[in-house]
Design goal:
Elements lengths: L1 H25 L2 E9 L2 E8 L5 E6 L1
Length: 59
């Protein structure tokens, strides 16, 4: 019984670690500028793979 519990625990932990790596690897954007003001905000991000820059303006 102890062997089964250890095996299941190891599979669960391995799955959790793998899911964490997948989720962390999905975001390939880097925030260059993030400004928040009472009337809105500006966020500038750059894609690490392509170098593409995106600008989001909130009003």
């Amino acid at each position: 019984m102890n062997i089964v519990q250890n095996t299941l625990r190891g599979l669960f932990l391995s799955s959790a670690v793998a899911m964490g790596w997948m989720v962390a690897g999905c975001d390939s954007k880097e925030t260059l500028l993030d400004v928040e003001t009472p009337s809105g905000g500006v966020q500038v991000e750059q894609d690490r793979n392509t170098g593409e820059v995106s600008v989001d303006v909130d009003e």
